[in-house]
């Protein structure tokens, strides 16, 4: 069979949304959809945009394939399980971001616009318009399968999307709850149903716990904060995060009888903080805390129940707790800092202040500072830093860092003199603040005579 010339960008794929698309191309698209269902389709993201190829090698855009499939489904007696199967297969093949917009628009058109009176957004800050059920809508006009599919799409935005996509989840579930509140209540109680029963709910002599993937929440109530209780709580968290269906941004709501917190001023006194402050008291649990942290640490993901000014990546409190335990855990600290969102998170500054007050500036500890200044904007020094650095050992360690600064930059920037200069400037600022400006003249001027030459080398 001879197909026409490809009409996508750089002739990489066929477009199938145009009215005059040839029947032969549409037939190949249907084959591609079937191959996605069968698991025989292949994706190619070597260039933009990502395409999906059928077993004949014919390429299409994933969102257009999804659109073609969805519009073929009946809106009365909507086959929810079939639709979910295709969406899951497509997501596994190309990733959530390739299909999320198409799914959101489908729910907007087939649920929001068909069942609701859509109002106007009152301000520029509201993401979604107000929606009220059409007064003439009859129960028999609403398809249960379509609403269940809407719930599926809502959950996917939380499970697979970026943290801000939880707003879409809330909006879609808000629509469904106006028509079928029982459906949303079931999700709130049991989640999507994809988690194993012993993870959805757990009860032992030490604790009662539950996990809900639909609302990205983990609740743990401990009867005591001893080693056994902390071990069970950590094991539970690890088991949850090992589930591929559980969201990467989530809330941990922990309650225990001992209100213990880390010795880091300014950290939010939340249950998740309390949990790891309790657990770190037991050395046998340290490796398990690290296991949790490494599973939890994900760029652009957050603990959902912390305020904006205290926003923190999952794993934060476990890392901080271990970091204060000694050098064994400082590699973990550096890995954590590398994943921090440098535009939004700042709790690491509070940790870094406490960390260097405890351990000083040494050859072992200074890498934490270099990773730290790259983890956020304008890391400010603690007032004690200029005193802590004022010794021969610390200044020599700092010079050693300066001599190998390229190790702390991405490979493509390691030889960039400007990037190296900016990084060194930030390191100096994180120790001396404004006194590091103008070549550190103020610092050098007030330096002890026996250290003046070393200060000059640092600021050279």
From TrEMBL:
InterPro entries assigned: DUF6138 (IPR046136)
Give a single Pfam family match: DUF6138
**What is the originating organism of this protein?**
Laedolimicola ammoniilytica
Its recorded name reads DUF6138 family protein
